[in-house]
Amino acid sequence: MRQVVYFPFDYATCTPIVKSPDLTAARQFPTIPAEAKHKESTYLMNTNADLLAGLNPAQQQAARIVEGPVLVLAGPGSGKTRLLTHRIAYLIDPIGVPPYNILGVTFTNRAAREMRERLEDLVGAGRTATLTLGTFHSLCARFLRRDIQHLGRERDFAIYDADDQEQVLRRVLRELQLDEKKYPPRAIKGRISEAKNELIGVQEFARIVRDYFDEIVLRCYERYQALLRESNALDFDDLLMETVRLFEQHPEVLAKYHERYHYLLVDEYQDTNRAQYVLVRQLASRHRNLFVVGDEDQSIFGWRGADIRNILQFEDDYPDARVILLEQNYRSTQAILDIAQAVIQPGGQRKRHKQLWTENGGGTQVTLIEGYDQDDEAQRVADEIVRLMASEGYQQRDFAVMYRTNAQSRAIEEALLSRRLPYYIVGGTRFYERKEVKDVLAYLRLLANPADSVSLERIINTPKRGIGTGTVAELQRFAGGQGVPLFTALQQLQAGEKSPFTERTRTPLLRFLELIESLAAQSRELPLPKLLEALLERLAFREYLLSSYGPDEGDERLGNVVELFNVAEDYTGLEQPLQLPAFLEEVALVADLDSLNQEQASVTCITLHQAKGLEYPVVFIVGLEDGILPHSRSRDNANQMDEERRLLYVGVTRARERLYLLYAFRRSTYGRTTTGVPSPFLRDIPPHLLRKPGGRSTSSVAAAMAQPGISPARPPQGSRSSPISTGRAARQAAGSAASSLRYRPGQRVQHARYGEGIVLSSTPMDGDEEVVVNFKGEGKKHMIASLAKLTVLD
DNA sequence: TCAACTGCTCTTTTT
DNA sequence: GAGCAGTTGA
To answer: How far is the CA of A515 from the C1' of C10 (A)?
Structure first.
């Protein structure tokens, strides 16, 4: 009987799709009883004890404030999300805010999802109203879908991600005859993005040009915007900037949202940038029921425009704001909080020094470990996980390994694999960024929006159909000359207009056009999964992948594409014409597939940035070296150094019970090996707060490997082959010990994907080994020993 | 046009 | 060490 509103929206009517049999009940929800509102204008006395029962007095006080601006400054682990969730429940329930009147903004889609789930549990049957919950970007996309025509644009715009943006900029550079080497598209993109985050459009940018590079950027920016418009596309930053513009230029549109949303809640307010700040101001301007929660000590997104002043100056912007401090920490032990304080204390830019405290007791001392190199460091982590599981009863899901850069995950992965610990990597090479996935999506995007020239260019010769780079360049000139999208140019070609193409190049172009047109016709009729199926069939995509990448990799890539079906299935509940656009929007804005791939019983590997807002019983932070954390690019900028410090603080405060800090004596970053210097942040921690494992206190394996402490570590002795798996041992041996083969014909082996098989042959190859295995039901596979994760069964 | 080859750069962090 | 743009030869 519960009623909960999920994404996606129905774009035509802009109403949420309620996955519940009974929408009427939600719609007829009572409005705020007038007398209740006037009796007590800010606090409502008749609280529902159940709804606020889980909160402490300070949280309860915050949750109950019904009107006016509220700033909650909350330390880590103080129950921010909990507070937000209970407050929403409270607004919905005892006060009886009617449907559609609450707008909650979170920082990630994951946070929104989690909050929705918690709300489901919290609010009982028949009492649930609807609310809108999402990230700034997803909300803006929704607003724009509805009203962007006021800005003279089409509704079915595409959303361009970083990759697409760079493609557009490449084309711009080519057109302007600028050297890509001298003006890297990334850098230009960064500058444009920076400007957009501060709501600086092309016109305004012209006025703030500060150097020669900006001059170039200005020229690119102008052309870039024109191309986006021609392609009927918006980039991420446009979503925010255009929404602000829409509200500014069309107060009647904004008024509509004022009507709809009486209560605005923003999580992680310290991470808002200028555009988001203005957006919040616009949306809250009428009712002023703005409730923001944040922690300046956890501001870690300055590099993408987050402006810490938004939170520091909240009271200036809203002089009547109530400010509530949440300092009690419910998450961590005192031992962990001591470390957190030590790390954050020396940082600058802090207005209020929150004093974290907990009733959780002392807890286990935080451990500092030096590994010999990144592999040893990772192995220590894996060993410790195994030890804690055996001796302390932890489960795999209790552990998280956190690092500064995604690249560091690799060593961790290998170590976990060698211990047969299931893990999952958050982010990393994102699913939607894989080439084969992007290719398929490009087709779908083109079907939804034929003006999308970036997508067209991406797939015009994928799979190969005889349209080379020369022809594509010619097509671009042809289209560019008339200022039309590539697709339109193709149509003109078909209509027989005179063009620079020879018969030989013209034929494949027209065949491509016919392909797209016939698929487009199907896209208007078929439900999404069927469309996907037809598309793959028509392209012979399976055969294409298998022939381009071989049976192993081809199969894996095909698996990724098949994964898309799972996502597509979710949209079959929508009316047919909405399925494709809704799907594409989710793909663009919900960058992760966590919910799909996350295995419950797995160790989590995650960047420090992504870890914000999460918590784990046991946390390992690896790579605490100067140049990694803090990152070398931040070294000469005090603000950035502060941000790195806060990043570590965020990581430390994710831990509930146990925390491990690790660094490596040497580390190789793409080829070159360098000696690691422990992070300067470690020096800020009083030594007595840290335990350095000696002798028996760590796992026997780790203890045998290297001496603890700061003394120069010794390289691991010999190969550390575990009886469980040969994967890692194989790789180690490949580097050091020579030649003797690790697999013999007749051996039974296990592979993650193919299952069980018999080794047919094994031959040495470049210090590695090529193994041929016959898998049951899968047949013969050739694999490279160090890459194929093979486990010997007997 | 395309496959094979070579030499170069690249890594923060995310919606 | 990898992925990619640019070059070469078929």
So the answer is: 30
Q: What is the DSSP string of A150-196?
A: GGT--TT-EEE-HHHHHHHHHHHHHHTT--TTTS-HHHHHHHHHHHH
CA–CA–CA angle A18, A19, A20 (5° rounding): 90
**How much is the pLDDT for A349?**
57
A550 CA to B3 C1', in Å?
16
SS3 A97: coil
Q: Is the pLDDT of residue A669 over 60?
A: yes
Which tens digits make up the pLDDT trace of A486-508? 999 999 988 887 777 787 788 88
Q: Which residues contact A763 (CB under 8 A, 6 or more apart)?
A: A741, A769, A770
Average pLDDT over residues A510-538: 92
Chain C bases closer than 7 angstroms to a protein Cβ: 1-2, 4-6
A14: helix, strand or coil: coil
The answer to whether A239 and A159 have CB atoms below 8 angstroms apart is yes
Nucleotide nearest to A237 (CA to C1'): B15
- Say whether the peptide bond before residue A630 is cis (omega within 30 degrees of 0): yes
CA of A28 to C1' of B11 (A): 54
pLDDT class of A696 with cuts at 50, 70, 90: very low
Please give the span between the terminal C-alpha atoms of chain A, in angstroms, as a whole number. 54
Tell me how far apart the alpha carbons of residues A307 and A272 are, in angstroms, rounded to a whole number. 6
C-alpha to C-alpha distances, A247 to A150, A200, A686, nearest whole angstrom? 10, 16, 52
Distance of CA A380 to the CA centre of its chain: 28
Q: Using DSSP, state whether A131 is helix, strand or coil.
A: coil
Model confidence pLDDT, tens digit, residues A742-793: 777 667 777 766 667 777 667 665 455 667 777 665 566 666 666 566 777 7
By C-alpha to C1' distance, B13 is nearest to A609
Query: Is strand C less than 7 A from the beta carbon of A212?
Result: no
Contact A466, A632 (CB under 8 A): no
Q: What are residue A403's DSSP bridge partners?
A: A607
Q: Give residue A148's region: left, alpha or beta (phi > 0; psi -120 to 50).
A: alpha
Is residue A179's beta carbon less than 7 angstroms from any atom in nucleic acid strand C? no
Q: Catalytic site residues of A?
A: 80-81, 267-268, 298, 654
Residue found under tokens 């407050």:
A87
Residues A598, A587: Cα–Cα separation, whole Å: 17
Asked if residue A409 keeps its beta carbon closer than 7 A to nucleic acid strand B, the reply is no
Q: E strand or H helix at A402, and its extent?
A: strand A399-403
Helices and strands, number each (H, E), in chain A: 33, 26
Q: Judge whether residue A633 contacts strand B, using its CB and a 7 Å cut-off.
A: yes
Confidence label for A741 from pLDDT (cuts 50, 70 and 90): low
Better pLDDT: A172 or A671: A172
Per-residue flag: A180 CB under 7 A of strand C = yes
The Å distance, CA of A617 to C1' of C5, is 46
Q: According to the model, what pLDDT value does residue A559 have?
A: 81
Distance CA(A217)–CA(A787), nearest Å, equals: 43
pLDDT band at A471 (very low <50, low <70, confident <90, very high): confident
A591 Cβ contacts chain B strand, under 7 Å: yes
Q: Is the CB of A670 under 7 A from strand C?
A: yes
**pLDDT > 70? residue A146:** yes
Q: Which of residues 415-454 of A touch strand C (CB under 7 A)?
A: 435
* Residue A338: both structure tokens together: 């001591």
Q: Which of A750, A729, A752 is CA-nearest to residue A741?
A: A729
How far, in Å, is the CA of A688 from the C1' of nucleotide C6?
A: 57
| Omega before residue A8 within 30° of 0, cis | yes
A174, A145 contact by CB (below 8 A): no
Q: Label residue A125 by pLDDT band (50, 70, 90).
A: very low
User: The pTM is what?
Assistant: 0.79
Tokens read off for A456: 């067209």
